[in-house]
Amino acid sequence: MTASRFLKHKELPSWLPYLLAGLGAVLYLIRAAVYAHTTVSSLDEGSYLIKGMFYLNGTYQPFEPYGPLTNKAPFAFLIPGLAEYIFGAGLRTGRYFSIFLGLLTLLGTWIAARRWAGNWLAAFAVWVFALSPMIVKLHARAVSEVIIACMLAWLCVLALDEKKSNWRIVLASILAAVAVFTRQNMAPLLPFLILYVYFQHGKRAGALSFVAGSIALIVFHLFYWPRVMTIWTPWLPEALTPFLDTFRIPTDSVPIWDPNIDFWNRLNAFFQGIRYHFIPIVGSFFGLILLPPRSQWKSVPAMRTAFFLALSFFSLVLMHGWAALASQYESYSCVFCFSNYLGFFDPLGILFFVVVFAHAWNQNPNRVVKIISVLAVILVGTGIGYSLFEFVGGGLLNLPVVPRIRSGGLGFIAIVDALTQGLDLPLVAVKRWISSILGLLAAFCVLLFTFLFSKRKQTRFAPALANSFLIAGFLLSPLLHLGESRLDCPNTDIIRDHEELGAYLAAIIPPDSLVYWDGGNAFTPMLYAPQARIFPPQINDGYTFHIGGNPDVLYSFSHWNGELAGRWRSEADIFIIEAKRYADWKDFLAPQEFQEFARPPASQSCNEGAELRIFQRLP
Q: Which terminus of the chain is more solvent-facing, meaning fewer CB atoms within 10 Å of its CB: N or C?
């Protein structure tokens, strides 16, 4: 018996799924507010906010040479910048605006899910968000993931419908173009949408979608032409596009950000992404392998909708997986950003799963699908365990469960001693083995439960296994989010501290002073000191720093090197230094040349050494 039939059979009140969805949204809001006030600001967040503010108030323009690095499509900065411009610059504005977008994401996902899968599965979609600390925490920060997630949710509301509506098709197509111009990694979205509209609503509707989306995308590009090509050149082979070399950073310098991350840590990042986005990823995977033949679909429009969602979701997952985990497509590639990248398109994965579950959950798959289902549960269970190795504590490591023959008879020694001493394994490898085995055991428990249940209830094994595994993951979501669910700074208010620190900076920095920033990788505190001038490449900290190279050329691309750093040190009036970095500055900031201001009343972070020290050059 499927979930929908069970609920209908029990004749539950019709208002109950609405209440559950509302409670899920309230829980989401409460958790987001807590994270907003306790999460340390990041480089990306500070970058989006201050660049957006600069672009909106006219200090700089996107892609301006010698200005801030526009390494993402402009709307990624302009959208949060607009909120800052209207409601006042600061972390509070940025984060509250992001939470608002997060709530809109829930609403859009709920509307689309309700349209295709009914009230109960729509409520379930809301609770997927509410029970996922990683997603909530991501939405509580002023970053582009929540912006794109909101756009995708409402694109689905506008476009994914059985009934044709020209005005909604036009809006959806324009919104897809806006998404591409917010993050260029959304490039496949518009062509996929045009194909969906064509097959769902016919040639005229498809042509309308193509024209609306193409015109919007062309207009956006023409407005920033030709420097907008700097965001596309990393995607294009240099050998085939030498005429675009003027938009590429010359290769005569070496970026210092070149992380050497081994296979095992990349594997860890991959399974972190799966456990943080369990339902969107695993639910979509089971939805894909349990797709029935076309003849068994309850609704052809639902089938087309599911295909659009699957094509979009899995294409974006594979593309971002390759960029983060397998390649070095940019000097600032980020392996452990994979789980964040998945936050872009959570609504697509959730909607694909609920549409397939409601319309086409294959109850009689073939043997190959059964084998794939079993292997998937074993692999994902083991991988999730592997990615939790950092939480293997001393209590588990020191369990005396390994038998050992001693002179006095049979005894037992701790697991950690047996593996580190007996097999000469490092401690991190021991933790990985233990956590992987625990994950494998959990997967076998799901398999055993499903086998016994399917025998007793006379149900098909593969769909029962998918349901059991997904329910277990859904209910254990807080456990799967260990690490990300913790509060960064539970004993302070990060937003309040930024406001106090910002007020202090605004009071002590003289107007038009030139500020050298070495105050941490998050430039967020400078939002509160608009009277100051800065060196724009420092917004991205060391991620844009190079060894060697032509300083003027690097500066024109919003990058920097040691020569520029030395030049800026001689020009700056104010130096803002993170306390733990002060040792590198002690000789330069000699008392006879610089005076130090009183220590700020608050810190930008609760982490040790994050306090700021502020110096002014003496006349």
A: C
CA nearest to 349, candidates 309, 377, 290? 309
Kind of pairing between the strands at 409-414 and 514-518 = unpaired
What is the per-residue pLDDT across 54-92, written as a single tens digit (0 to 9) for each? Answer: 999 999 999 999 999 999 999 999 999 999 999 999 999
How far is it, in rounded angstroms, from Cα 580 to Cα 608? 8
C-alpha to C-alpha distances, 80 to 87, 195, 522, 534, nearest whole angstrom: 11, 31, 16, 20
Write out the E strands in 332-458.
400-406, 409-414
Distances (CA, A) of 350 to 89, 374, 469, 477: 34, 22, 16, 15
Which residues neighbour 180 within 8 Å (Cβ) at sequence distance 6 or greater? Answer: 73, 186, 187, 189, 190, 217
Beta bridge partners of 612: 578
- H/E stretch holding 476 reads none
Instruction: Count other C-beta atoms under 10 Å from residue 294's C-beta.
Output: 9
Q: Tokens 């002179």 map to which residue?
A: 407
CB atoms within 10 A of CB 10: 7
Q: Reduced to 3 states, what is the DSSP secondary structure of residue 255? A: strand
Higher pLDDT, 456 or 231: 231
Reported as half-sphere exposure (CB side, CA atoms, 13 A), residue 398 has a value of 3
For residue 49, the SS3 value is helix
Q: Both tokens of residue 6?
A: 């069970």
Burial class (CB in 10 A: 0-12, 13-18, 19+), 126: buried
Q: Classify strands 545-548 and 574-578 as parallel, antiparallel or unpaired.
A: unpaired
Check: CB of residue 331 under 8 Å from CB of residue 540.
no
Asked if the peptide bond before residue 242 counts as cis, ω within 30 degrees of 0, the response is: no
**pTM confidence score:** 0.92
pLDDT at 381: 93
**Could you tell me which residues come within 8 angstroms of residue 424 by beta carbon, excluding any fewer than 6 positions away?**
none
- Between the alpha carbon of residue 327 and those of residues 148, 259, 564, the distances in Å are 23, 12, 30
- The total number of residues written for the chain in this structure: 619
**Do 151 and 193 contact (CB within 8 A), yes or no?**
no
pLDDT tens digit sequence for 522-559: 999 999 999 999 999 999 988 899 999 999 999 999 99
